[in-house]
Amino acid sequence: MALVPYERNCLPSLSKLHDTSAEFFFASHHFCISQDWNRLGVAAVVWDAAVVLCMYLELGQVELNGRTAIELGAGTGLVGMVAALLGAKVTITDRAPALDFLQANVRKNVPPEKQDAIVVSELTWGENLERYKAGGYDLILGADIVYLEDTFPALLRTLEHLSSNKTVVLLACRIRYERDQNFLDILQQRFILQEVHYDAQRDIHIYRALKTKQEL
């Protein structure tokens, strides 16, 4: 969601994020994702949380075929594209400055016969939510979107607006700071929250949230 450029030398452990592309194989499909760290920062690279969430979707733990999904803070759009190739109809969202880049990745990576399954749309959390049907999605996806404390209230409002009592929210994140855990604690006051997967190699957690108590 945040468009924050970083200097290459200040984060040597993240040097792969400065590559102009990253390649993956999900949903029986090869992805070559364009990256542009220097221009769009965190919004234009593939983070480990996105990779782990794609792996989780491939496991079939969540029904995707014929479902409506929305990805928040999509960045490169990898998660949303994988969900679409696994059978969902997906709205992939991010802030306006990232949309051209996001749309280009969708055009480049999604087969023509699947292009109609994806809509790229502007969504700044907490703003103009009436453009999106309240409770209108079966699945809400977010990869590494829990990291800026100032955005937490708007993110929570957005999740509440988009969710019905049957909506499944999947958040993949690395818990870097106390504030990240604080957001999960607040989310748990509004949703039934459960950790459903942990990738120890990448230190990525996946949380599943539901508005009402259902079988998790």
TrEMBL record:
One of its GO terms (biological process) is methylation. It is found in: Cytoplasm. GO terms for molecular function: methyltransferase activity. It holds the Pfam family Methyltransf_16. One of its GO terms (cellular component) is cytosol. It catalyses: L-lysyl-[protein] + 3 S-adenosyl-L-methionine = N(6),N(6),N(6)-trimethyl-L-lysyl-[protein] + 3 S-adenosyl-L-homocysteine + 3 H(+). The keyword Methyltransferase applies. Its main location: cytoplasm. It comes from the Eukaryota. Keywords: Cytoplasm, Methyltransferase, S-adenosyl-L-methionine, Transferase. InterPro entries: Methyltransf_16, SAM-dependent_MTases_sf. Belongs to the methyltransferase superfamily. METTL21 family. PANTHER family: HEPATOCELLULAR CARCINOMA-ASSOCIATED ANTIGEN, PROTEIN N-LYSINE METHYLTRANSFERASE METTL21A. This is Protein N-lysine methyltransferase METTL21A. It comes from Scleropages formosus (Asian bonytongue).
